[in-house]
Design a protein that fits this description.
Radius of gyration: 22 Å
Order of helices and strands: HEHEHEHEEEEHHEEHHHEHEEEHHHEHHH
Helix content: 40-55%
Largest sheet: 6 strands, mixed
Shape: globular
CATH superfamily of the largest domain: Periplasmic binding protein-like II
CATH class of the largest domain: Alpha Beta
């Protein structure tokens, strides 16, 4: 009997060692360099090898449905938009995780985006806070600039920056498929319409041509028309240009703390009066068609739990969604960002939450707004056609 048990233990161990799980995520370059140590730590602790593959969510949205129809999946743990996880969880292509993930261990609301009728289909990894406009402390000190505390002071700062001969524009405009522009826009909406506006827009309780929505959009359009925002540029290139001094401010998520040469030179401020900031978690799921369901569940539980998130936040540029992580694990600049969500409302990412045609239309129309702010009415009307409505 003892020999049989010993054999079984060795067999299970050998099977674990032979297992290679595939993790699919969007992170490349320096972001990937910060993620790989997390995967390596899991392998070190479990003996389960991991292959990491890079796929953008924009590509996965076309790849995964066809794979699912063939009862296949390109990975065992896949990072993807929350709205996609909800949709295909309901369709039966994604494994429920209610017996794997304990929702009580997460920040309030962190798992709502991947829960359908009480069934959990994904888990929240670390989040990226989108707190406001980043600046270099050394640049502000050199030019005697101060963080604005009112809208008038903010506009005054932009005007002063516009008159500096060595700047292309006061604010760098990061762009990709459209999401960096959407982050700026959502910040204006939440600031001038209040945190509740984000939820009302997601639920379709308010129209885009209402005064509340227009108020924020008109303020943004006025700044664009005055030349305070630079031309939309691929966001990592815009980051380099901003850091090099071509721009003074850059609205971007907290992940940039791990993408600059000296994070201690970073400062950040929200629009004066902001009472809410987007806290966008990265969500992961286990496809129903994984060859290693038990190992995949073990991996997602570890990644999204305290151990995995602790390793990730220590790399810089991430904020934990799971509770109980000591602030001492954060680099100094991220430690301050982690405190931000304690003082304001943590909001979901509007366009990611709605998804679908609305998201792509939103992105496209914001690109138009940045080029032709005088066409705000047209932009609002097109967005409203694709927006949720009660």
């Amino acid at each position: 009997m003892i020999k049989k048990l010993t054999f079984l233990v060795l067999l299970v161990a050998a099977m674990s060692l032979a297992t290679t799980l595939t993790v699919i995520g969007p992170w490349a370059g320096t972001e990937m360099d910060k993620f790989v140590p997390v995967l390596n730590e899991f392998t070190k602790q479990t003996g389960i090898d991991i292959e990491y593959k890079i796929y953008r969510a924009e590509d996965l949205v076309n790849v995964l449905p066809a794979q699912f129809l063939s009862k296949k999946a390109p990975g065992d743990v896949i990072f993807m938009w929350a709205n996609f996880i909800r949709e295909y969880g309901k369709k039966g292509h994604i494994m429920p995780l209610g017996n794997v993930i304990n929702s009580e261990e997460y920040l309030p609301g962190a798992l709502n985006a991947v829960t359908v009728n009480g069934e959990l289909y994904g888990s929240a990894y670390t989040g990226k806070v989108k707190p406001g406009f980043w600046y270099r402390k050394s640049f502000f000190s050199e030019h005697g600039l101060k963080v604005p505390t009112s809208w008038d002071e903010f506009v005054g700062l932009l005007e002063k920056l516009k008159n500096m001969p060595n700047l292309n524009a006061p604010i760098a405009s990061g762009n990709g498929v459209g999401w960096p522009l959407s982050d700026v826009t959502e910040h204006f909406l939440a600031t001038f319409g209040g945190p509740k506006l984000t939820y009302d827009l997601i639920e379709g309780n308010i129209l885009w041509d209402s005064y509340t929505v227009r108020n924020g959009l008109e303020k943004l359009a006025s700044l664009i028309s005055k030349g305070y925002f630079g031309e939309p540029t691929e966001w990592t290139m815009a980051l380099q240009q901003w850091w090099a001094g071509d721009y003074a401010l850059y609205f971007m998520g907290s992940w940039i703390t791990g993408m600059v040469d000296d994070p201690n030179d970073l400062g950040v401020f929200a629009l004066p009066g902001a009472k809410g900031v987007v806290f966008g978690a990265d969500y992961a799921f286990v496809p129903k068609y994984t060859k290693y369901p038990d190992e995949a569940k073990r991996l997602i539980a570890w990644l999204c739990g305290r151990e995995g998130q602790t390793v990730q936040v220590s790399q810089g540029g991430h904020v934990a969604t799971v509770k109980g992580i000591d602030l001492a694990n954060y680099p100094p600049v991220d430690r301050e960002i982690a405190k931000i969500i304690q003082g304001v409302t943590a909001l979901p990412d509007l366009d990611d939450t709605i998804g679908g045609e609305f998201q792509t239309t939103f992105w496209d129309q914001l690109k138009l707004l940045w080029v032709s702010p005088d066409r705000l009415d047209d932009v609002i009307n097109v967005i409203q056609e694709k927006a949720p409505r009660r």
